[in-house]
């Protein structure tokens, strides 16, 4: 230390001042602390959505698919003062280490009509009449879609509610081997029926060499569910499913429900079916499938379908085709019932039972909207040659469980 330094120390001691050490140490952290606090405040205000599937009730939230950390950092710096702007490296470190935030995957199953309207909104100039008209049209479309979920949340007196859906096809065998990936595997199918709380799911499982994934399989599983479920003296059964024409929303399923109501002694007097707008079909069954996906991710190799069955048994009741339920020729019911016309446009289909002189009859009412009711009336879909005695004698026959596979899938 030089002479000047010693004189300064002596002077401060004589004046009673505290001598401050200025050599080394952290001179920058206190300068960036305010910036870090501002970044945390900004990120904390981001509003995302929980996982659609509700996997394990995670606290992680998801932002829009089009966003990224880099884009959010740019938004932050654009809307803050120069003194509080930060580098991307600092922003990324706080975002990743202190917050549980992810980004949604790009949507692959969206409403085509919503996509068209969104494109039109971007095309027309801001404030133009055309753009405002499209925005209003989209708002109305969204409200119609939300009406389905309003129906699902309704508490209808003396009713019990379920939803059903077919899970995404699972590959068999499933193996982390490149050769197996490029070969054509057979499919393992899982049809789930669950209450609206997502509790006590029931799985109907089969593989592709046994049967397909069309209306016959879905209606057979649904018939088994109806025949073997205790509805606890409820008089109304409410069913919710997507509007897939080849599986859920078709005359084969309609005839199967009519057959059940006319040939079975049950407390049910009405069955209500509800179908959402296309692209807006988020059901409680999807949450169950989310839990299944989590278990399947932990098992990278599955050689036999029995391994799939054991996994689904961990989630709920499982019925294996050929052991617990049978594939019925529900298409043959066409000889007794007429088609419900214009079924593809219907949002609600009601079945109502009446009994006269000990004979049960079922009438059907179909509506093209969720809330408002027009002039639709209950109609009789029985054919002229129909008799209940004939229906009781001619039960749907059991179909053999053998389905031809393509040569590409016979490598196993």
Structure write-up:
The chain has about 400 residues and is an alpha/beta fold. It has 3 domains: about 30-105, no CATH class; about 110-145; about 155-410, no CATH class. Helices cover about 35% and strands about 15% of the residues. It is built from 12 helices and 13 strands. It has helices at about 5-15, 30-45, 70-80, 90-100, 110-125, 130-155, 180, 215-225, 250-265, 285-295, 305-315, 390-395; strands spanning about 50, 60-65, 100-105, 160-165, 170, 185-195, 200-205, 235-240, 270-275, 315-320, 350-355, 360-365, 380. Strands 4, 5, 6, 7, 8, 9, 10, 11, 12 and 13 form a 10-stranded mixed beta sheet that branches. Strands 1-2-3 form a 3-stranded mixed beta sheet, with no helix packed on it. Helix 9 (about 250-265) links the parallel strand 8 and strand 9. The longest helix has 25 residues, at about 130-155. The radius of gyration is 31 Å and the shape is elongated. Residues about 50-55 have low confidence and may be disordered.
Question: How many strands appear in the DSSP assignment?
Answer: 13
Helix/strand order, N-terminal first: HHEEHHEHHEEHEEHEHEHHEEEEH
- Mean pLDDT rating: 84
Taken as a percent bin, the fraction of beta residues is 15-25%
Based on the model shown, name its key terms.
412 residues; alpha/beta; 3 domains; 10-stranded mixed β-sheet; 3-stranded mixed β-sheet; 36% helix; 17% strand; (apollo) hypothetical protein; DUF7869
Write a compact overview of the structure shown.
The chain folds into three domains: 32-107, no CATH class; 112-144; 154-411, no CATH class.
């Amino acid at each position: 230390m030089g002479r000047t330094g010693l004189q300064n120390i002596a002077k401060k001691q004589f004046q009673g001042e505290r001598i401050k050490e200025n050599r080394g140490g952290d001179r920058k952290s206190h300068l960036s602390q305010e910036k870090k606090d501002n970044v945390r405040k900004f990120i904390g205000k981001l509003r995302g959505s929980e996982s659609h599937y509700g996997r394990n009730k995670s606290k992680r939230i998801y932002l829009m698919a089009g966003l990224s950390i880099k884009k959010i950092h740019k938004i932050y710096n654009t809307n803050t003062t120069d003194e509080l702007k930060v580098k991307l490296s600092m922003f990324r470190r706080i975002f990743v280490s202190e917050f549980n935030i992810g980004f949604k995957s790009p949507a692959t199953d969206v409403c085509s009509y919503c996509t068209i309207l969104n494109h039109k909104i971007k095309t027309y100039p801001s404030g133009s009449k055309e753009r405002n008209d499209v925005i209003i049209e989209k708002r109305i479309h969204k409200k119609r879609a939300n009406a389905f979920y309003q129906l699902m949340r309704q508490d209808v007196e003396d009713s019990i509610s379920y939803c059903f859906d077919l899970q995404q096809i699972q590959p068999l065998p499933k193996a982390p081997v490149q050769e197996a990936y490029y070969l054509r595997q057979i499919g393992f199918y899982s049809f789930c029926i669950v209450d609206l709380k997502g509790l006590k799911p029931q799985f109907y499982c089969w593989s592709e060499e046994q049967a397909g994934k069309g209306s016959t399989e879905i209606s057979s599983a649904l018939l088994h569910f109806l025949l073997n479920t205790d509805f606890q003296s409820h008089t109304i059964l409410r069913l919710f499913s997507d509007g897939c024409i080849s599986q859920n929303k078709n005359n084969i399923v309609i005839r199967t429900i009519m057959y059940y109501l006319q040939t079975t002694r049950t407390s049910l007097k009405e069955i209500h079916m509800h179908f959402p707008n296309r692209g807006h079909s988020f059901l409680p069954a999807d949450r169950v499938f989310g839990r299944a996906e989590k278990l399947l991710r932990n098992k990278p190799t599955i050689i036999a379908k029995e391994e799939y069955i054991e996994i689904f048994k961990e989630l709920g009741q499982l019925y294996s085709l050929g052991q617990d339920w049978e594939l019925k020729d529900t298409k043959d019911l066409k000889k007794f019932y007429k088609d419900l016309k214009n079924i593809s446009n219907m949002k609600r289909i009601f079945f109502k039972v009446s009994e006269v002189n000990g004979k049960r009859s079922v009438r059907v009412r179909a509506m093209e909207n969720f809330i408002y009711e027009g002039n639709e009336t209950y109609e009789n879909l029985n054919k002229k040659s129909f008799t209940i005695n004939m229906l009781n004698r001619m039960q749907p026959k059991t179909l053999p469980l053998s389905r031809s596979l393509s040569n590409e899938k016979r490598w196993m």
